[in-house]
Design a protein that fits this description.
Layout: H1 3-25, H2 32-39, H3 43-49, H4 53-79, H5 86-98, H6 107-115, H7 121-137, H8 141-159, H9 167-178, H10 192-214
Length: about 220
Amino acid sequence: MDNPSRSERTRKAVIEAALAIIARDGPGRLTLDAIARESGISKGGLMHQFRTKESVLKALLEHQIAYFGDFVRNYLAKAGARQSQPQLAAQIAVSREAIASQNSVPFAVLGVVAQEPDLLSTAREIDAASLAAIKAEAADPETAMLRWVAARGLSLTALLGICPFSKGERDRLFDRLLDDRQWPESPSGPPARKRGARTRRTKAEAGGGSRGRRS
């Protein structure tokens, strides 16, 4: 096996081991010694690829960003045409995917937050770009942002083990967040039909009052 292939195999094994440790034992137990034991790689071999734990955390975050970048592109290619707000739908689907498996790449974020929060600047920039795209396609940007943050909240509480909903309840909530028909957008206020109905009621009430005064 040539050196690039060996290096890539080591990198993959280290990332998988780090994710397993974070998922099973928590980010506080993530050390180079623990990664070496989990992956079966010697400490020297590990440090040849990753000199510090921070470099492992950076690799975890890069892995997560690449994974979900591919997920969004695939989602948009397959389902985007069926959505009136494809960027929003893709980001809600990302939140749902994040809790699809217990040893999922989102545990990388938990590890980075706990150990090296400064590394999250790239993730924040990606979120900002995603939100800009969501607002640009929405007739009602605030409703779109509420749907996005609700999906993110479902995902994060599930990953942290504090979600009060069952899996079935979460699935139904995600389905509702993805269903544009249940989120009518009205950036200019209530629909014209309802305003008209309210106006007719007001006139009728005023007419009734006038008749009452005349009698």
